[in-house]
Request: fold
Amino acid sequence: MPSSYTNPASAVPTNEQAAGGLVGHAVEESSIPAPISGHHVLPTDGFGTRAIHAGSDPDPATGAVVPALSLSTTYKQNGIGNFVFEYSRSDNPNRRNFEHAIAALEKGKHGLAFASGLAATTTILNSLPHGAHVISMNDVYGGTYRYFNKVATNMKITTTFLDLTNPSNLPDAITPDTKLIWIESPSNPTLRLVDIPAIVEIAHKSDIYVLVDNTFLSPYFQTPLELGADIVLHSVTKYINGHSDVVMGAIVTNDDSINTKLRFLQNSMGAIPSPFDCHQAQRGLKTLHLRMRQHAINAMAVAKFLESSPYVESVIYPGLPSHPQHELALRQQRGFGGMISFRIRGDSKTADRFLSSTRLFTLAESLGGIESLAELPCLMTHGSVSAEDREKLGITDNLIRLSVGVEDTEDLVDDVAQALEHAVNTAA
Reply:
């Protein structure tokens, strides 16, 4: 594999090397182990080619074109300390393959896999110095909000939740202890966008790292590292895996010192995914480009229909010219994704009737799978956010979030149409 996609998968620094926090501490670069095989993927190859071939060279012993599932927890050493793999918590063939693949797609140098998106979040926050300050987009996933507010505080880490849609809000919020800017773009669930290069320019003047949660768009539609971000985070559970059957997280970075610190914590904290989950997630990754195209086609059709419906107050989809940041989406993204939020004309009871009336959109949390899902954020994914903060963010009782799947477009539009008709015109 080209050096730009090298993954130092089994390099684990010593406690002394990793003693510093994520920011402002020089960390000795670990040695890079030999790749599993030839890694014939080029950085100039197209997205689909990289998705299918990165981390998936044919097995040199058997010729198998699908990497084998390695369930072993330990590995034979050819002498003390002479090994390719040592112990499966530290490294595993399937995890290394997946980490190569996700790094290649994000145009990154280092990929790290975790047991969940929140496990990745936990690892990043644990890499910060005690008492660090984080500035986060105020409209973030409810689990992230909960972790910042109720768990990270145990390490004396404080978080300022800020409207980062306006970069000029950032400078006044920065303190001497600020170590990380946390971005979701588009945000969850109101699909606000952040001008990533503008935030990066401000943050880097103060030697602050910028993280972008890229879960909603995937690297097919947005590559934050190319926009200047230092770290990209994914809930692999969503679009990366794409089949609603794996819970995983991932981090990608080009920064060697960040990778060294996080890889030490990945091994030391042990919040790692199973070999089977890595095998499944890489299988899902191979069709990401095909799935994302259809997600976007379907979402645009549904969004346009919703915008034309008299039963809908407003539609939030960055692909619509009506979105207040549509021009930023055109400039920063390569597409608009499969997530839509809209406010149904009515109240929570109307929203409940809609969610109870869909035939193809399943009432469920999560997103990014091949099947279409619908949910009410105020009581489901963002139930942990205070009522006061939900009101400020516009997470109203009639705000519905759709994860538009890859079913036939016409069927999804018809399903939304009949559910709206039933919800608005049926007496409570």
